[in-house]
Specification:
Blueprint lengths: L1 E5 L5 E5 L4 H13 L4 E2 L13 E3 L20 E3 L8 E3 L3 E3 L9 H14 L2 E3 L7 H6 L2 E6 L8 H6 L2 E5 L11 E2 L6 H7 L7 E2 L10 H14 L6 E6 L3 H10 L4 E5 L8 E2 H6 L4 H14 L7 E5 L5 H10 L3 E4 L1 H7 L5 E4 L2 E4 L1 H6 L32 H25 L13 E3 L2 H7 L13
Amino acid sequence: MTHERTGSEGLSLEESAGYDRRTLDYIQRAAATGLYEIRGLGAKRKVASFDDLVFLGASLSRYPLEGYREKCSTKTVLGTRHARKPVELATPITIAGMSFGALSARVKESLGRAATALGTSTTTGDGGMTVEERSSSKTLVYQCLPSRYGFNPDDVRKADAIEIVIGQGAKPGGGGMLLGQKVNPRVARMRTLPPGVDQRSASRHPDWTGPDDLVIKINELREITDWEKPIYVKVGATRVNHDVKLAIHAGADVIVVDGMQGGTAATQTVFIEHVGIPTLAALRQAVQAIDDLEMRGKVQLIISGGIRSGADVAKALAMGADAVAIGQGVLMALGCNSGSYVADGRHVSAIEDYRRLGTAPGFCHHCHTGKCPVGVTTQDPQLEQRLDPAVGAKRLTNYLKTLNMELTTIARACGKQDVHHLEREDLVALTVEAAAMANIPLAGTNWVPGS
């Protein structure tokens, strides 16, 4: 297949579908440098997603609720299986793990403030716990990653839950990256690394070789926290059915599944675009695995990877998730890919800074460079001042409030007094691909492809 057009000088130009301009640029760059591309954020390719599902609102056969008179509960409890102190949240919308190092300390403070205002949780990410994050977050989840950078048992005890990270949706099977330009002296001290040197995390945990060893690690973490804290296990979306079942057998209280649309601060583009499966397919498989083991209601499921709106949240819950975790959407709310930044109440243009990076607002994925024009993904002492923690917290609070209102609006329209009562019967798919991945009927039919 070719795409033909006529050039400005009357030349006949035919572009091959297999070797379009983007592919040619990739090959020529690789040939010139011998290097693969590293970038931030998530997959750019279009895959079946929550956009391909719609709700069947109540009408004659179902009874809707009045939005201004009838309550719709969003209360969410995570970690009820073994923990003596499960996590209780006011909303099922949580903030995903993003490290200090990938993000500035001012951003971490903004996340904590907004999460506290909404009654939800935030998550540490790689590299350990910062004072700013712990002091601003009422509910904080502490991640235990393969790198163990900054891992501190005393900080584990200060957390409200522990998340053992096996893999991430943007790079399942691969370790994290933090390039040297973001390893400032404070980040280096927390991670016990030399400043200014590229950091590449391990792709697997150093103290186990398989799922049996995960049992030992979970029990170790329970022992040092006196069995108070819920233990989450996070996997990147690949062999989801097997991974979820193994994590449950190992004793996890909560399973976190991160689809391929999930973001990253830095990794190889080939990972982002070509490893893992879409969130939609991963969610259906995770729910099926929990049901197969008859653990629905005992083990909770958090889904992440491309959750952007209240509609996405509602669809995830209807398919069987108990909560969602949001990363990239949070960064966008703070100003990522915006043409301006906010410092001390002043809106200042960042267009020229984007140009120096060779990009523009809406197209930036240069999180790995540390040169974020709006001060979000940076450790530069001048650039990070561009994000005022109070302003960032207010913007993020507004965003999360909006998502929560959209979620309850949809739930009421489907006749639900609790967002956790949304169910698969409330959904239909608009495409054959989405119907097959989600195991939901194609709209206007009773047909589920593949069933």
